[in-house]
Amino acid sequence: LGTMRPVMQTRFGWPDGNCTEACIARMLGCGIEDVPDLKERCNRVEGKTGAPVLPVLNAWLKDRGLSVLWVDLQSVHSAGQILSLHGEFVHLMSGPSPRCDDGSFEHMVVAVNGRMIHDPYPGGEGISGRATGHGYLVKLFEPGSGGRSDSGRSL
After folding, report:
1. Cα(131)–Cα(95) distance, rounded to whole angstroms?
2. Segment 94-104, tens digit of pLDDT
3. How far is CA 11 from CA 14, 77, 155, in A?
4. What are 4-56's pLDDT values in tens digits?
5. What is the dihedral of CA 29, 131, 12, 43, to 10 degrees?
6. What is the pTM of this model?
7. What are the distances in angstroms from CA 31 to CA 5, 37, 57, 62?
8. Residue 36, Cα to own-chain centre: how many angstroms?
């Protein structure tokens, strides 16, 4: 992962906001302009507004040897068990947007072990209430690498 510097979203509100793109840019150490417009790609691929973003994001990340492993915290037995398994990891965290009273859309921030470290929204309020999901950037296994990473260490 690259050097993490703050990256702010440039579009706001559902369905046009780009908080996910800003969070990915922060985690990769690049500019928001280097991350594709995920909602536009989803709309083009799926032919409808509001299509799932994760498959499109992972298709783009695959070219970089990465993928997002998404943990839906609403469907696991205990979010605390998930957090206790992995140590200190930077991850995406989604939850209800504080700018939406009825909970009809979510917001994305960057977190470490469930604690927000960056909100791409200018106000910096984070999410409202409990997190609904965590996304972990993981390095993809390269067939033929013999189970070794780029550094030569065994995976």
Report:
1. 4
2. 999 998 877 67
3. 9, 35, 39
4. 789 999 999 877 889 999 999 999 999 999 999 887 766 665 555 555 788 88
5. 90
6. 0.80
7. 9, 12, 16, 18
8. 13
